Amino acid sequence: MIKFLSQLLDLIYKKRCYVCGCSGENTKLCSKCFKKIRRLPVKILKHIDGVAVYCSAIYEKEIQKIIRGIKYHNQTELAFFQAKIMYDYWKQLNISQDTYSIVPVPLFDKRQKKRKYNHMELVAQEFSKLTGYSINTEIIKRIKDTKPQYKLTKKQRKKNLHNAFEYSEHHYNGEKLLLIDDILTTGSTMEEMIKTFQNAGVKDLTVFVTSCTEFNIKNRSET
Ligand SMILES: [Zn+2]
């Protein structure tokens, strides 16, 4: 009901910024809030099992609201802005000239049906429009209904994710894969995904996350 009302209000009045609520710019994310997002320097954040990890912004208020809006509150229009934050960063890298296949972190089927969509697939679609890269959602599936990670310790996360993914060789054509996710915390999800690919002999991997926690920035690798 609230959602319906807010959509109706959007229709009658102008679109409101999902973060600050202002309606001056008739957009889901106003330029002020977009500018407030703290971006990270364009360099490798860290390596996970030898794979370079890039990250576009720090996970704090504005970006948190955007990610949660897409993920839990049907604010699918925000996917464009999340992709734009990533693209602003990505286009500055020399490696962005290469051709990639974007692989959004998959959700377990049942969870995706319940949520109606995989939020990272929506971001991948927008990122694909900006970069011209293709998307590959068939190459890896989540075959285990893992528990939400945020309450678990690093050790529990690892156990929770153990053998959570399944690789499909029929859907691989030797292209460079760009694995994307919204937040990097302990990196356990990416670690498990990378392991799945590497065990199958797929080596050309790059990780790109929209945001990461301060912890990752403090522990940035010097390479
Ligand atoms: Zn705003």
Written overview of the protein:
- It is a single chain.
- By secondary structure, the protein is an alpha/beta fold.
- It has 2 domains: 1-36, no CATH class; 37-218, Rossmann fold.
- It is built from 9 helices and 8 strands.
- The chain has helices spanning 2-12, 31-36, 61-72, 78-90, 109-115, 119-131, 154-161, 188-199, 214-218; strands spanning 46-48, 51-58, 100-104, 134-135, 140-142, 165-167, 176-184, 205-212.
- The strands form 2 sheets. Strands 1-2-8-7-3-4 form a 6-stranded mixed β-sheet.
- The radius of gyration is 18 Å and the shape is globular.
- It starts with a helix and ends in a 5-residue tail after the last helix.
- The mean pLDDT is 91.
- The structure holds zinc ion.
- Zinc ion binds next to α2.
How many domains, in number, for the residues?
Answer: 2
How helical, in percent, are the residues?
25-40%
Uncertain residue segments: none
Number of helices: 9
User: What's the alpha carbon Rg, rounded to whole Å?
Assistant: 18 Å
* Widest sheet, order of strands: 1-2-8-7-3-4
Q: How would you characterize the largest beta sheet?
A: 6 strands, mixed
Arithmetic mean of pLDDT: 91
CATH architecture of the largest domain: 3-Layer(aba) Sandwich
Terminus-to-terminus distance: 51 Å
Bound molecules: zinc ion
How would the global form be characterised?
globular
Number of DSSP strand runs:
8
Which CATH class of the largest domain applies here? Answer: Alpha Beta
* H-E order: HHEEHHEHHEEHEEHEH
CATH topology of the largest domain: Rossmann fold
> In terms of structural class, how would the helical and strand content be classed?
alpha/beta
What percentage of the residues does DSSP assign to strands (E)?
Answer: 15-25%
